[in-house]
Every structure is written in C-alpha cells, then in structure tokens.
Design brief:
Distance between the termini: 31 Å
Strand order of the largest sheet: 6-7-9-8
Largest sheet: 4 strands, mixed
Oligomer: single chain
Structural class: alpha/beta
Strand content: 35-45%
Number of domains: 1
Number of helices: 3
Order of helices and strands: EEEEEHEHEHEE
Length: about 140
C-alpha cells in the first residue's frame, strides 16, 4: 500500500530495545492489553522488535507512541536522531516515579514540551506532544 507517495510498511510486534520473544498479557478489554501483567495464564508470547534498528532503517521524522506503559522502558534507550515530533500517551500507573522521571529527563533533554493534557478520569494518563528543530 502507498500513502502520500511512500510505501506503507505495517509490522506486528512489541516495541522494545532488541529483537526477542516477549510475554504479552491479553486483557478482556483489548485496550488494556500490555507487556505488564501478573497472571501468566493470561500471557501469550509475541515478537519483540528492536525499535532502534527500525529508527535507523526508516529515519522517521515523527514518532507516535501509545504502548500501554511500555514507553517508560523504551524511551530512555531510544536513539532518535531524525525525529522532530513525538506524540505520546503515558500510563504512569504501570511504573515507579523514578522510571517516569527517567523517561521525562530523556525526552526533555532532546525535545521541547509543546503540550501535556491530563485525562480527567485518570490522573496518571497523559497525552503529550514534544518537538524540536533539526538542521
């Protein structure tokens, strides 16, 4: 499929920092499914994807992440030299304050925070837009 003159490449997998099989916990409400869970019987195994490899290969200028808490482990290890815009949904109820702080430190060292919107029904969920100018 082509979109805006570019070939669209859709891949299935869990974003991570290496290519490996990882547990994925399936919730009754599919939107609650994630790599975080406590019931092994609810887990399936899926392919994890080395996100830095994909970023090097594709050289995207925008990154949109809604990965149900996985952002806190992923973002501090990301190499994003071509990314100008990050649109992110965070789920702070999945992690410690330290992990959340490490993610924000990594982002704000590289990007300007344009907007953060807190969800009224869930104070730990945020929708964020960050940007930067690149040469």
């Amino acid at each position: 499929m082509r979109v805006n003159g570019k070939q669209l490449d859709v891949r299935r997998g869990v974003l991570g920092l290496e290519d490996k099989i990882v547990p994925f916990y399936v919730a009754e409400a599919w939107a609650g499914s994630s790599v975080f869970g406590s019931k092994p019987e609810a887990a399936t195994r899926v392919q994890g994807v080395d996100t830095n490899r994909i970023l090097r290969e594709e050289k995207p200028t925008a990154l949109v992440l809604d990965i149900e808490g996985g952002e806190f482990a992923l973002i501090p290890g990301l190499e994003m030299p071509t990314v100008r815009l990050v649109i992110l949904e965070t789920h702070g109820d999945f992690v410690s304050v330290d992990k959340e702080a490490a993610m924000w430190e990594c982002l704000t060292e590289q990007f300007r925070v344009e907007r953060v919107i807190r969800r009224e029904s869930d104070d730990k969920m945020r929708f964020c837009v960050l940007s930067r100018e690149l040469p």
